[in-house]
Structures are given as structure tokens and as C-alpha cells.
Amino acid sequence: MKKQLLTLSLILILISGCAANYIKQLSFKGDSENWKAVLNYKYTELFEPAQAGKIRHRRLEERNYRINYTGKEQTLGQIEFQFFDDSGERLGSVEIDPGTVFPISGTVRGEGASEITRIQANNMVPHPAIGFPDTKSTFILKLMWDGKEETIRLTYQ
Prior knowledge:
Strand order of the largest sheet: 5-4-7-8-1-2-3-6
Helix content: 10-25%
Strand content: over 45%
Radius of gyration: 23 Å
Number of domains: 1
Distance between the termini: 59 Å
Largest sheet: 8 strands, antiparallel
């Protein structure tokens, strides 16, 4: 009886599998008189086999930006830029020394992981974490250089 129950359990586990991996990507773009910018968000949820019948559940978030100067000046002094989200909260700022090669780009990553049971994995509905943008989100990029300032509104593309 125990052997039959064990066999049945293994078959059910194989049939049910585990939750599917999930990826969501959004791209936001905008430009101004002298600048062009892209802000990409990527959210990934991974379900991987772990030890003792458990599933390793990982959440990865990545924010990647790319800023191009489109103006006519041959050289730029020090450049400072800041990204803001819908609520006006600053996502980060960077100061760059003169002579920067364009485009300016960077990536911010975050990761969380835990081990869960197969039953938990099968019952999970993957979705981006709270605070992940949607297609209605907008971002503001403020650029300052050589005593000048421009603001770019980045919208979903």
C-alpha cells in the first residue's frame, strides 16, 4: 500500500509540474530639445527545482536607462541627471564629469529568493511586485549641464 501511494504521489508531481516562469518588460521613452532617453523595466519570476522536493522561487527586477545628447554643442561640462517616478519620488541621480562618451547608460538590479513547496508553486499567480510600473506610468528625467536644464517626460512605448 505504501509503495502504491508513493508511486501515485510521484506521478501526480510529474503531471502537475511546477509554476511557469514569468517575464514582464516595459519600455518608456521621451525626448527634449537636446536629449533623448529610454528607461526599460524588466521583472522576472523564476521557479527552479531545489533540494528535497522544494522549489526555489526567485524574483528579479532590473531598471536600465540610456540617455543620448542630440544637441549641437561639441563639448559638455559636468552633467547631472535625476529620474523621478509618477509620485515624484526620486529614483536616483548621477553626476558625470566632462568628456563623457554618449550614450550614458546604467542598470539597477534587485533580487529576492525563497524556497517553497511544489503545492505553493502550483498555486502561485506570478505578477510584478508592488511598485512595478504599468503602461500608464510616466517618469520624469531632469538633466542639468553647463548652466542649462531640460526635463523629459518618459511614457510607455
